């Protein structure tokens, strides 16, 4: 793939500075060669604009004059996504439906679908046009998969579920394993069969080895456009809204409701039956155990307003041993003052 | 599956109120239709008893009069488990031993076993009657699997292990990967081969993408009836007792001993060589680094009595910045008082 | 495998005490039989030296006289690794290249490689001599794998990556899934295609169900000799140095740099764009959000010097409710003293 800078600029509706060149790829400011385009967002790295060998730098107006050729964007990441898309080669090396796969005779699999060897598609499953199923993917019976999905190796979608269009499952993702539900009985924990399902919207991406459990009775839901990172755990009956960002190793307990546009940073834990309002942002490693107001910014375990947590934990906590000493000193001195006062002794 | 409420009640040995109807399924109070049974445990949701369309509600005596038909139980979850069991359809759509699987000629696989395509069963492995192995399951050589087990897609059981009856492995669970053991040498970390195994009891369930390591030399053990959630890490040589509940994303370090009936909530971390006594309950995200007395309720990282942690972290920690100000003010005022006293100045 | 103690000692260049016997295996002090060798490192378990039935104990000089036969080592773990290696039997039961595998005609797979059934090897992938690929392993197109690697069942290595010699992937490990990168746009989160790769050095081990993401544009790197435990998440563009130990459930955010010889204990979280200097040691469950000096020992979330954290969290935090009471009492008493002073009342 090669494209003239002028043609690239025209395609994206952007202006550029400097002369025209041929662009053959995208790379970081450190690694880009003189036929590649790079990008700058964070001003912290602005110095690299001068040392980079990149043929052109995609950046916002204020930085454009720091390099010989700039492609000027008001949303660098959005335009970067479009440029990378042009140069990206999809993963994989086969097309068609492999005869080393198992496709149940009662499954519906259009010719436009790619089915690699060792894929299993169960009875009455339906796969949408253009979807690609890599080796080791399992699609359970009666499950419905949308169009243009990409399910990478060893992703598992159990039976009776539905997934929308353009979904991406990274390798090893598991959708629809049983929820964790047991009745306490005199003979021990008795499994409550998990007869519910999972419904995943359009444009959802789910990371490597992430697990999303089927509901006990009704439906675990993931809304349109939500992006879930690797090794995330989502319990049964959870409802996650649209356009959320759920970062690596987050765990969400059963029956919790997460609004739209919520951001859960890495390793956050959310307890069962919690409710997180639209647009809330929860800092890494925080613990949420109740309801979170829309738009809140929380941190800590248990969580509190992020600013409070930062002051309490970063500033105060390390000085806590010293604070105990100061209080002890105050107690001693005050006792001395009181004693002196009692003795009418004002000279000390 | 359809059953008269009267027949259902008789089967479970329960009483019911209202007239008899035909029950065709189970659902939540919000979702149940008038031919479905629902349930109520948490009084917080008692209002739903009035708005639900459910044909009948399984509940305890005190709530029974809030709905037109109630099935009255003294252990709602236990009876719910039994009812759901009646209506549950098992996952999967094949029976028999697929000729797209690999079964080693020296493996012992009775005819009652279901072996899906792309299952691998190694030499001298033995599989118990009625066990179901979904696509992508790996059973290593010399491993012994009990009867009526369900191993979902891509679950891995390495060689030389044993698993009891009625075990459930959710998709992607890994049993018997190597433990994490290295000798520090001048040439770097030298792997200590992990030649031990894993022994899992009866009625154990293991969640999606959970990993349980084989012992270095002897045996990693999981006791009867213990239920392990998704994405849990259990290190080599760990011994977990019977009827424990180990919730999502818990990590247990090597050689740790966990007693019977222990509950480890989500994202708990337990260090190497710890001992947790019978019946201990550890709050979410806690960190355990030593021995825990039987019956303890701990929380925090490092863990302390749960009540203490709650007060210290929920109540006190957010007020810590303010406490520092109060102590500073005390110091100033006390200094002023002392100075005044030194000056014999009592008028200030 | 049987070996005379005298021959074993000679092989390792070690001295032994007591008479010569035949050794048939290795086990713990509790479990070893009288034809097995055991070992002692931790003096805490020295009492077991007297009760053990082990035929011989590998230990350092100071403990050698506590047992009838000792093999004396100045690096017990290193010599243990060598002894266990002698007795270890490799996992697996097949050799050769299975015709139930899919090997792309344009892949390079020497005859010395073992390819189990249900392995997928993509176009232009190259596999080094003696490497073993267990069932369900996926090797993407153009990926290069070194010699003598062991990839256990269902491990996934996506396309365009490189892995050095002697690498071990435990079951379900995923290398080269897409990094988590999205542009915020008016239409929601737009995926930035992840067109970079992953380069893993020699002698690296990667645990069960661990996920290492491909770079956005250039290369995610894992240095020689680094050992990564189970369920670890490593984000895109991360560079991990040589001989690091990264324990279970650690998460490392995108573009972070980890030096050589770093130890990250269990469940540590490292934010995006952090830098951790050589030889740093980070305590379990800690949170790292910025730069860490080489050789630092940190703990806590957010992290602080480990000693400070221990005092602040183990000693002070539980006493915090009491500290608030003490400060309140001080405030009251000081107010009384001031009031008395104002009243010129020194008798109280």
Automatic annotation (TrEMBL), chains A, B, C:
Q: Where is the UDP-3-O-[3-hydroxymyristoyl] glucosamine N-acyltransferase non-repeat region domain?
A: 20-85
UniProt GO molecular function? N-acyltransferase activity; UDP-3-O-[(3R)-3-hydroxyacyl]-glucosamine N-acyltransferase activity
Report the active site residues. 236 (proton acceptor)
Presence of keyword Transmembrane? no
EC assignment: the record states: 2.3.1.191
Q: Which Pfam families match?
A: Hexapep, LpxD
Name the enzyme's class. Answer: transferase
* Keyword Acyltransferase included in the entry's annotation: yes
Gene Ontology CC entries for this record: membrane
Give GO terms for biological process: lipid A biosynthetic process
Q: Which InterPro entries match?
A: Hexapep, Hexapep_transf_CS, LpxD, Trimer_LpxA-like_sf, UDP_GlcNAc_AcTrfase_non-rep
Q: Which UniProt keywords apply?
A: Acyltransferase, Lipid A biosynthesis, Lipid biosynthesis, Lipid metabolism, Repeat, Transferase
Per the record, what are the reactions this protein catalyses? a UDP-3-O-[(3R)-3-hydroxyacyl]-alpha-D-glucosamine + a (3R)-hydroxyacyl-[ACP] = a UDP-2-N,3-O-bis[(3R)-3-hydroxyacyl]-alpha-D-glucosamine + holo-[ACP] + H(+)
Output the superkingdom of the source species.
Bacteria
- Where does this protein act, in terms of pathway? Bacterial outer membrane biogenesis; LPS lipid A biosynthesis
Assembly with partners or alone: Homotrimer.
Biological role stated in the UniProt entry: Catalyzes the N-acylation of UDP-3-O-acylglucosamine using 3-hydroxyacyl-ACP as the acyl donor. Is involved in the biosynthesis of lipid A, a phosphorylated glycolipid that anchors the lipopolysaccharide to the outer membrane of the cell.
Q: Which family does it belong to?
A: Belongs to the transferase hexapeptide repeat family. LpxD subfamily.
Mind telling me what this protein is named? UDP-3-O-acylglucosamine N-acyltransferase
Q: Which organism is it from?
A: Pseudodesulfovibrio profundus
Annotated gene: lpxD
